[in-house]
């Protein structure tokens, strides 16, 4: 299992990656659509996590690309409590299904 995390703010992407890696996941981050699309097209990822700050048009394109490669997509919504809490409480349980 290899996870791609896409967000717009590098620090937030890095925070999500730190939690995922601490839990034993192989995860890579991207902050630009072109970079994320190249990762998706590499076919080496199984899951895509799209951060809450990614615009709707970008989300749609990323979802389409990921779906074409059979990737599971988790699309984050703005939440209170911070990135660590969200990744541990929502993202990781979905990845472990």
Question: What is the level-2 CATH architecture name?
Answer: 3-Layer(aba) Sandwich
Order of helices and strands: EHEHEHEH
Intertermini distance: 12 Å
Using only C-alpha atoms, the radius of gyration works out to 12 Å
Number of discrete domains: 1
Gross geometry? globular
Strand-pairing-aware structural class: alpha/beta
Mean pLDDT: 94
Low-confidence stretches: none
What is the class in the CATH system? Alpha Beta
Strand content: 15-25%
The helix content is 40-55%
Question: How does this structure look, described?
Answer:
- The chain is of the alpha/beta class and 97 residues long.
- The chain has one domain (2-95): 3-Layer(aba) Sandwich (Rossmann fold).
- Helix 2 (33-41) packs parallel to helix 3 (56-68).
- 51% of the residues lie in helices and 19% in strands.
- It has helices spanning 10-22, 33-41, 56-68, 82-95; strands spanning 2-6, 26-30, 47-50, 72-75.
- It has a four-stranded parallel sheet with strand order 2-1-3-4, sandwiched between helices.
- The radius of gyration is 12 Å and the shape is globular.
- The protein contains four helices and four strands.
What is the strand and helix layout of this fold?
Elements: E1 2-6, H1 10-22, E2 26-30, H2 33-41, E3 47-50, H3 56-68, E4 72-75, H4 82-95
Parallel strand pairs: 1-2, 1-3, 3-4
Helix pairs in contact: 1-4, 2-3
Describe what is shown at a glance:
The protein is of the alpha/beta class. It has four helices and four strands, in the order βαβαβαβα.
